[in-house]
Write a structure and sequence with these properties.
- The complex is a heterodimer of chains A (420) and B (294).
- In chain A, a hairpin with a 2-residue loop joins strand 5 (175-179) and strand 6.
- The longest helix of chain A has 37 residues, at 235-271.
- Chain A is an alpha/beta fold.
- Chain A has helices spanning 2-16, 19-45, 62-69, 93-105, 135-156, 164-167, 188-222, 225-230, 235-271, 277-280, 283-310, 314-319, 322-333, 335-340, 345-351, 357-367, 372-400, 410-418, and strands spanning 51-57, 81-86, 111-115, 126-129, 175-179, 182-186.
- In chain A, the strands form two sheets. Chain A has a four-stranded mixed β-sheet, sandwiched between helices. Chain A has a two-stranded antiparallel ribbon with strand order 5-6.
- With 294 residues, chain B is of the alpha/beta class.
- Chain B contains ten helices and 14 strands.
- The two termini of chain B are 40 Å apart.
- Classes of the chains: A alpha/beta (420), B alpha/beta (294).
- Chain A binds chain B through residues 2-3, 6-7, 10, 14, 18, 219, 222-225, 227-233, 402, 412, 415, 420, and chain B through 13, 46, 49-53, 74, 77, 79-87, 89-90, 98-99, 101-104, 146-147.
């Protein structure tokens, strides 16, 4: 027990006393947050440039109407779109179009639009530009042209509409999540990004500390310090000490991040316009997150222990990390499907497979907490999986730390497990 | 103080034997464990240090079976493995404090002991320098210090002078001699001069088997009258090498002066000379190989 404590303390202090650990607590969530929230935020806040667009109107009626309704303005009050009508000459259309293409390439025009003669019967207008990534302009053009087409079709039926926009005014549904305590205002984007943020913290923590554990095992093995240590303590004490010490450091880092978030996160949340995030970050989610983080940590540490014990260098460890990354990343890849139906049968089954449980369960709880029996079952499966994998890892570690040279084959590993 | 190794064997996969029915009884003094690479020296040391378990046999420390009760020997054990390295981010004091804690040494006692040992191994002025910047010799000296932390009754050192410069080597040999008193020191090496300088007893080991366990004088007696100095033209060396066991060559103006280990004079002109431990080592190892080949 004394040795366990000594090794735990050394690993914990060895990690938390480094500058990287302290910097990681501050920078980790900032960098993660920047990757996730900043692009959307910047897109929202970025200045839209004025767009010059030429229009060849083969229909003969749409240009004037479009010019009168495409009146969006920029923040400085100028029109967002400057439309210019180009004459439609059927016999010289190709030539005219070539000229327009040349003007676009020379940046004298940003785009040109060709409205077909049969636009009101379903022929699609064609938009030509150097960049086809301007989805906002595309969306605005589609909406306005569709409104004009609907008005024209209604008029053809004898229905005169004064203001189609007010007639067809759309509404947005305000999301309120029903919980046992009542209802809470939320939005899909907030829930999605929050669950993604938590899963990424879980993923980076487990992966980062796991690799550290494997590297530390390789280091002790290569320096033969392990031989001195095992002449004073049992391999099990050393392994448990390492795992618990690093686990303590990982938990400290995550709690440090949360504490900083609670202390200094409010202004950031206002800037990102995600005030309803407090309704998502509820105690049930946070408690479960910490528990799944710990269980996930211990489960994956057993794999990293095996990796460290069978490797002779950091490079060998790195070459075997990819399958673990995939195990952890799979739930993130299917995250959108989880969001759509968190309690789907296949998702429930997948979330009870121990290596997927931590990330999938954190996602599911963010959207719609599973039933208590399901949660309890996932905890029980995780717990027993850790015991089983821990037993296996300890057996392999005990032999692997004293083996140098060639990486063992699977039959050799099986033999290590059977060693008495 | 008694360390008894009784019929210890260690078998690896593919029916390879690290040790085979190895028996040895040791009491206070320095045992020089000599043998070629792969002879089983490190395997024996790991078993004695409770790092690994034998496939068969028994090891007792003061009549207590250390395979069943490893803590009995761990409390009094100092161990320096071959190619010993360090944690690069720690300094000497932090490293020794950690090793002392694992060995269960009281904190205040450990601090006192660390200061003494850093002085002893000449590392005091580097006590706060990260170990990543230590030379091979400095790491080795630190390894020796960690092995001595608990003032061990059984000190096992595997190739301890590898990487040390000549001055450090002499210093280490003297240190071992000073330490020998009321403890058992097992010094494994294939540098015969290290053993010659420090050992009170020598165990020769080859292919996992004990060939001989005796005082150095006894070993020398075994090759008395079997070592010859023979001067030959240098171009004859390849032919002579094929026929005789040569323990040394010195080039002089009159030709090559060979030290030949042989039961009888290798040539009419060869003169008998006093044997060294190196001659004895080569003689017994070579004899065991010949017997095995038969």
């Amino acid at each position: 027990m004394r040795n366990l404590w000594v090794v735990t303390k050394k690993e914990f202090l060895g990690m938390v006393k480094t500058k990287g650990f302290v910097i990681g607590i501050f920078l980790g969530p900032l960098i993660l947050g920047a990757f996730m929230f900043l692009p959307a935020f910047l897109a929202r806040k970025s200045k839209e440039p004025q767009l010059k667009m030429a229009v060849i109107d083969k229909s003969g009626w749409l240009f004037n109407k479009l010019d009168s309704v495409l009146v969006d303005t920029l923040p400085d009050g100028q029109r967002a779109y400057i439309l210019s009508r180009e004459p439609y000459r059927p016999q010289a259309f190709k030539e005219d179009e070539n000229k327009l293409r040349g003007r676009v390439l020379k940046k004298k025009l940003d785009a040109y639009l060709v409205i077909p003669a049969g636009v009101d019967t379903g022929a699609p207008p064609e938009y030509y530009a150097r960049s086809v990534g301007n989805v906002i302009t595309q969306s605005r053009l589609e909406n306005r042209i569709n409104d004009l087409l609907v008005s024209r079709r209604l008029e053809a039926q004898g229905i005169v509409v004064g203001n189609l926009k007010s007639l067809l005014k759309e509404t947005e549904i305000e999301l309120r999540q029903v919980t046992e305590k009542g209802t809470a205002k939320t939005s899909f984007l907030t829930v999605y990004l929050t669950s993604f943020f938590l899963v990424m913290i879980l993923f980076t923590t487990v992966l980062g500390y796991g690799q550290h554990l494997a590297r530390s095992i390789v280091e002790e093995k290569n320096t033969r310090i392990i031989e001195v240590l095992t002449s004073s303590a049992t391999p099990f004490q050393l392994l448990m000490g390492k795992t618990i010490g690093l686990g303590g450091a990982a938990l400290t880092a995550v709690l440090g991040m949360f504490l900083l978030g609670f202390l200094f996160g409010a202004p950031l949340v206002r800037i990102l316009e995600m005030e309803n995030i407090k309704n998502v970050f509820n105690p049930v989610l946070l408690i479960n997150f910490v528990l799944y983080l710990l269980l996930g940590y211990f489960l994956f540490m057993t794999i990293f222990t095996i990796l460290g014990a069978i490797s002779n260098s950091d490079q060998e460890v790195q070459s075997m990390v990819a399958p673990i990354v995939w195990m952890m990343i799979l739930p993130i890849i299917i995250g959108f499907l989880v969001a759509q139906n968190p309690n789907a049968g296949w998702i429930t089954v997948l979330s009870l497979i121990p290596f997927f449980t931590p990330t999938l369960m954190v996602m599911r709880i963010s959207y719609l907490p599973p039933s208590w029996p399901e949660l309890a079952a996932s905890y029980a499966i995780m717990f027993f999986s850790i015991l089983a994998m821990g037993w296996l890892a300890a057996k392999i570690y005990r032999v692997g730390i004293l083996m140098y040279g060639k990486r063992p084959t699977l039959p050799e590993l099986a033999r290590w497990v059977r060693y008495r | 103080m008694q360390l008894a190794i009784e019929q210890v064997s260690k078998r690896y996969k593919g029916n390879q034997w690290g040790l085979r029915e190895f028996s040895l009884n040791l009491s206070s003094g320095i045992l020089g464990l000599l043998g070629p690479n792969g002879a089983g020296k490190s395997t024996l040391m790991r078993i004695l240090a409770t790092v690994t378990k034998p496939t068969a046999g028994r090891v007792t420390w003061n009549e207590v079976d250390i395979l069943r009760f490893p803590d009995e020997i761990r409390q009094v054990l100092g161990y320096l493995p071959q190619d010993f390295g360090v944690y690069p981010n720690l300094n000497s004091v932090e490293f020794l404090e950690y090793m002392a804690a694992v060995k269960g040494i009281d904190r205040s006692l450990a601090r006192r002991r660390i200061e003494e040992l850093l002085q002893l191994v000449n590392l005091r002025e580097f006590r706060k320098r990260p170990l990543g910047g230590f030379s091979g010799g400095m790491k080795q000296r630190l390894g020796i210090a960690q092995a001595l932390l608990n003032d061990p009754k059984l000190l096992i050192v595997d190739e301890p002078t590898a990487g040390l410069d000549p001055e450090e080597r002499v210093r280490f040999r003297n240190l071992l001699s000073e330490l020998s008193g009321e403890r058992i020191v097992i010094l494994s090496t294939h540098i015969v001069s290290d053993v010659e300088a420090a050992a009170t007893h020598i165990a020769l080991i080859s292919h996992g088997k004990l060939l001989m366990h005796a005082a150095p004088e006894k070993l020398l007696q075994g090759v008395e009258g079997k070592v010859w100095e023979w001067v030959i033209p240098s171009e004859n060396l390849p032919t002579v090498k094929q026929k005789h066991l040569i323990s040394g060559t010195i080039r002089r103006s009159d030709g090559l002066h060979l030290r030949v280990v042989a039961e009888a004079s290798p040539a009419p002109g060869a003169q008998p000379v006093s044997p060294t431990l190196e001659d004895a080592y080569l003689y017994f190892i070579s004899r065991s190989r010949t017997e095995e080949e038969r």
